[in-house]
């Protein structure tokens, strides 16, 4: 097990280096000279040259990459071309908001998804099963930015029950909780649909297993069969799907933040792309991809720990 | 005589292929949701192809005197947007854009993914290198990878197609590689090798046809993802730019007028949802119909 963990960590480090290289090179190959962007339209040739020298852009690409990695290890991701603000500082300020949104969405997804899946699997081909399956199909097909817009239209514009956007207040306050409801439902719906589908098929598969038949033959009550015997085993693949989708949710926050005007990492990235602020794009992309890889590693390790049939070789 | 046997064999093979397609279609027909999906896709394809004939208004033509007309107005049965442009015309032309983006990006993604998957699965020496590159691409959440590519290339619909294509490559490569690995050691492939057939011939003539089922399923579900991603990127202002009648861009524009003209945001969303739903259920239907492990009632 220890060897397995060490190997997976080593793979993750290599993957992160690969990601950083891809992201760095993508920004380097992008059209437009950063020095010209920073200097603006009034900058003279010598001004631009000075900026290039200051940023180290006149060095060979590989040296620039090594410098960047050196800075990265020391927590320095460079400075925004647009605002001059430290990228690390901007990310540190915005990141908790994004994490808050992603975690809240995951809770929504797990609660709705597993409940819908269990209801569906308990009585296959019933009306409830049909409703749950329809939810799963519609949930994965609905564009989350549109769902967000519709929720705003209904709950904020027409009924005026919930605020339109923000995530400015702490989540434990009533206002903060209210602000979180619509974005979390918007982002969590498609994952809830995937989890519901997975729970249903997994529960149905487990229901046919020999040990479930044995439990029934022994006279174990239906409720215990479902909640203790079936659900525990059926949840193993569901947890994996949920874990993998948490990384996807982080990607999804980019769009949801735009819908609800939430000042998280996603908005920072979009603003960076729109204004060709490469250090900002580089920093935010690296962070999200890094977390995605890290979560996948945790899921792998958890899966191996939960399911004894997984080999560590 | 030999020719006769050869011809007979060819006919038998053709018959089997016909049977396979017919069986697949029959299985698909048992799946009502898949049939609904096929119908929606067919209607959209017809609308997209015959758009100039089917719509009475130019989707780009502004008429500020009739701006923000609601659904059911005479002459504009789905209303108009804030510039007085007919919503029905824009939705129909939007279908054209979505289908073109979906199809082009899936075809390009498949071309790259199938090729990499075939090479990776067939040539053991290249497998590790290609799969590590695929792993690297998988390390990015899809939306993020697409955004990174757009950040590099700039914002436009063509760049969205390129981004979605690149995003499709790793998934396709993995699926094809898996199929190649399960086929390449079968006796008929070994027989081809022993009679000296070239690698190209073995790969494209004997292995690739046996990978078509997973490729078709992947392509169908990928169409749904591609259309959804294109809409999302355009919504963010990274894809189609105004005045393009792209559905995602239409929702973004409609968001500012939700109070006075909610149909501007509601209608394109329904269009996206129906299209994505259709491709998803057809993909599911194909998976069931093409998977030999699933038993169907006779």
Automatic annotation (TrEMBL), chain A:
Keywords for this protein: Cell membrane, Membrane, Transmembrane, Transmembrane helix, Transport
Membrane topology: Multi-pass membrane protein
Chain segments annotated as transmembrane: 12-30, 101-121, 133-157, 177-196, 285-306
Gene3D superfamilies for this protein: MetI-like
Xref: InterPro entries: BPD_transp_1_N, MetI-like, MetI-like_sf
Secretion signal span: none
CDD domains: TM_PBP2 (cd06261)
GO cellular component terms listed in the entry, alphabetical order: plasma membrane
Keyword field contains Nuclease: no
A matching Pfam family: BPD_transp_1_N
Example of a GO biological process term: transmembrane transport
Domain ABC transmembrane type-1: 95-303
Family matches, as SUPFAM superfamilies: MetI-like
Cellular localisation: Cell membrane
Family under the similarity heading: Belongs to the binding-protein-dependent transport system permease family.
Protein name from the UniProt record: Putative peptide transport system permease protein BRA1092/BS1330_II1084
From TrEMBL, chain B:
Taxonomic superkingdom: Bacteria
Membrane topology of this protein: Multi-pass membrane protein
Coiled-coil features, chain-numbered ranges: none
Subcellular location field: Cell membrane
Alphabetical list of Gene3D superfamilies matching this protein: MetI-like (1.10.3720.10)
CDD domains (UniProt xref): TM_PBP2
PROSITE patterns documented for this protein: ABC_TM1
Principal subcellular localisation of the protein: membrane
Any single GO CC term annotated in Swiss-Prot or TrEMBL for this entry: plasma membrane
Spans traversing the lipid bilayer: 33-55, 97-121, 133-151, 157-176, 265-286
One GO term of the biological process aspect: transmembrane transport
Domain ABC transmembrane type-1: from-to ranges: 95-283
Family designation: Belongs to the binding-protein-dependent transport system permease family.
Identification of the protein by name: Oligopeptide ABC transporter permease
């Amino acid at each position: 097990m220890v060897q397995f963990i060490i190997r997976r960590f080593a793979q993750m480090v290599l993957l992160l280096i690969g990601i950083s290289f891809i992201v760095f090179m993508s920004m380097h190959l992008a059209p437009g000279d950063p020095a010209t962007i920073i200097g603006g339209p009034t900058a003279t040739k010598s001004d631009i040259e000075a900026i290039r020298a200051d940023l180290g852009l006149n060095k060979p690409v590989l040296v620039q990459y090594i410098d960047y990695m050196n800075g990265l290890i020391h927590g320095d991701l460079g400075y925004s071309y647009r605002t001059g603000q430290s990228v690390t500082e901007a990310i540190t300020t915005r990141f908790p908001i994004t994490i808050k949104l992603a975690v809240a969405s995951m809770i929504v997804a797990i609660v709705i998804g597993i409940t819908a899946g269990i209801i569906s699997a308990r009585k296959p081909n019933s009306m409830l099963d049909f409703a749950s399956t329809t939810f799963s199909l519609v949930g994965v097909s609905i564009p989350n930015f549109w769902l967000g817009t519709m929720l705003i239209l209904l709950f904020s514009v027409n009924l005026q029950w919930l605020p339109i956007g923000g995530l400015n207040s702490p989540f434990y306050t009533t206002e903060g909780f209210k602000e979180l409801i619509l974005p979390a439902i918007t982002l969590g719906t498609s994952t809830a649909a995937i989890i519901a589908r997975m729970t249903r098929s997994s529960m149905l598969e487990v229901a046919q297993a020999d040990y479930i038949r044995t439990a029934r033959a022994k006279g174990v009550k239906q409720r215990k069969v479902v909640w203790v015997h079936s659900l525990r085993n059926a949840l193993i693949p569901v947890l994996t799907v949920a874990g993998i989708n948490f990384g996807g949710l982080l990607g999804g926050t980019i769009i949801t933040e735009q819908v609800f005007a939430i000042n998280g990492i996603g908005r920072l990235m979009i603003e960076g792309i729109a204004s060709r602020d490469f250090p900002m794009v580089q920093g935010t992309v690296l962070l999200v991809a890094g977390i995605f890889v890290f979560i996948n590693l945790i899921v792998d390790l958890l899966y191996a720990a939960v399911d004894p049939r997984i080999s560590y070789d | 005589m030999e020719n006769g046997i050869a011809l007979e064999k060819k006919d038998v093979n053709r018959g089997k292929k016909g049977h396979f397609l017919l069986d697949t279609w029959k299985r698909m027909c048992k799946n009502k949701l898949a049939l609904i999906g096929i119908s929606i896709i067919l209607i959209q394809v017809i609308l997209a192809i015959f758009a100039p004939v089917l719509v009475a208004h130019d989707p780009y033509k502004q008429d500020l005197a009739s701006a923000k007309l609601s659904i059911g107005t005479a002459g504009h049965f789905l209303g108009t947007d804030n510039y007085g442009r007919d919503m029905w015309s824009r939705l129909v032309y939007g279908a054209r854009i979505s289908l073109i983006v979906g199809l082009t990006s899936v075809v390009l993604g498949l071309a790259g993914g199938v090729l990499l998957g075939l090479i990776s699965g067939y040539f053991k020496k290249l497998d590790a290198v290609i799969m590590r590159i695929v792993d690297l691409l998988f390390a990015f959440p899809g939306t993020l990878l697409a955004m990174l590519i757009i950040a590099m290339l700039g914002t436009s619909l063509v760049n969205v197609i390129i981004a979605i294509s690149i995003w499709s490559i790793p998934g396709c490569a993995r699926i094809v590689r898996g199929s190649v690995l399960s086929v390449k050691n079968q006796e008929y492939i070994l027989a081809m090798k022993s009679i000296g057939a070239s690698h190209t011939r073995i790969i494209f003539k004997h292995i690739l046809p046996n990978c078509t089922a997973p490729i078709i399923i992947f392509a169908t579900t990928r169409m749904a993802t591609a259309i959804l991603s294109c809409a999302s990127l355009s919504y963010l202002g990274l894809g189609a730019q105004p005045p393009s009648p792209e559905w995602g861009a239409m929702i973004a524009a409609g968001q500012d007028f939700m109070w006075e003209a909610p149909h501007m945001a509601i209608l394109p969303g329904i269009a996206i949802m129906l299209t994505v739903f259709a491709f998803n259920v057809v993909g599911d239907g194909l998976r069931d119909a093409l998977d030999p492990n699933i038993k169907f009632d006779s």
